[in-house]
Amino acid sequence: MKEKILSVGIDIGTSTTQLVFSKITIENTVSSFSVPRIQIVEKEIVYRSNIYFTPLSNQTTIDGAKVREIIESEYKRAGIKPEEVKTGAVIITGETARKQNANEVLDTLSGLAGDFVVATAGPDLESIIAGRGAGADKISDDEIAYVVNIDIGGGTSNLALFHNGEVKDTGCLDVGGRLIKIDPDTKKIYYIFPKIKKLAESIGVNIEVGDIAEIDKIRKIAKAMTDLLEESVCIKERTAMYHEIITNNNAKGKGIKDGYKIDYITFSGGVADYVYNEDYNDPFKYGDMGVVLGEEIRKSNLLKKLKLREAVETIRATVVGAGSHTTDISGSTITYTKDVFPVKNIPILKISKSDEEKGLDAVENAIKEQLSWFDLENEKQQVTVALTGEKNPSYAYIQNLSKAIINGMTEVLNRDYPVFVIVENDMAKVLGQTMHRDLNHSKDVVCIDNIKVENGDYIDIGKPLVNGKVVPVVIKTLVFNS
């Protein structure tokens, strides 16, 4: 049976804020005798907002009241009332995710959708969201190829590498269109990001706040930025400056690993429009260096050594909403050592089938690596580890799986979070009990089964029902325009 819902996607980024309303059709695509899998079978964008510069009250604070004014005004323009919106997604990304009051801004938006997915995305999760929004994951699946998307915004360039539809690696560089800001009227430079000042000095360009912007100097800096992007996608030998320009390079920041043989490249973010379109007549059109950076990328080896593919979206490469559904969990095999419910908006870390097939060492390593995708300012966020599991597991397999999950989650086990695990096959009771024992009963464990989820999903788990035998779960899937 199909159900149509109205959903909203709200994106608050370093430079821009925007929203999209969508009509989403969801349907259970498997028989009633199988694990329910509600999929989004149709999506139609019914309204796109204007794109606004993200309002800041100063360099470190988002103006939450003005953000809400923007969102409310766009609801009115769309002719949509908040109570008509059943679900949605609010994503705060880029520099704005690091602002002091990002969570306060999320609070100011409460009441504008029935049930928001809320994500404050650090560099890795932002990379994945942008890459999926651009359609790079689908290209990699269709072509059975390595595809990298570079999302070039105002403050950062976020890289996501996909293969066969799955995320393989992520990275983030401090390369963006608004790292030098220029007064559109006077052409005076009024802001230079410190790393870009250092980059300019490394190539012999002297540039200061208060200078009149000279196109030749800006172009040389844009060319140096582009060289670093070439290094980031493994088509040029990496330099000391590349490691310097990595976002949070002194605090576990990273680029994608060296050595990949990448086939295709896509671009998203505001600068992408000037990679795909050759309109360079007004280089300082937006009061920054974004147009010039796009032009330099267009001329670079990024487009000569890699095959350029059109992105589904560029500046709008973000979520268009969220589809949600509720399902009851089979009561016979769930474990929860303490009633910690309800919990909301926990992101899913899904172990790929290929990693499960490689063995439990690969599962452990995948958890360790993918946990970093959900970091925010080097803080570990709560996640739910999800995997398929074996249909008829031996007790030895359960014991080894417990150890693999615990070892993989070492970095988050010292946080005051319960441990959440979802397995698709019928094994949650014994797995949860084994994990609780292996953790010396020091952590609360919630382990549920007969639920199918994917990376990019978020879950809510409600209070136990039927004398504690079942828990209601809402699965919310981010929706992209690809």
From TrEMBL:
Coiled coil regions, renumbered to chain: none
Residues in the signal sequence: none
GO molecular function, one term: lyase activity
Record keywords, A-Z: Lyase
Pfam families associated with the record: EutA
InterPro entries (alphabetical): ATPase_NBD, EutA, FtsA/MreB
Family matches, as PANTHER family: CELL DIVISION PROTEIN FTSA-RELATED, ETHANOLAMINE AMMONIA-LYASE REACTIVASE EUTA
The protein's name in its UniProt record: Reactivating factor of Adenosylcobalamin-dependent ethanolamine ammonia lyase
Organism: Clostridium collagenovorans DSM 3089
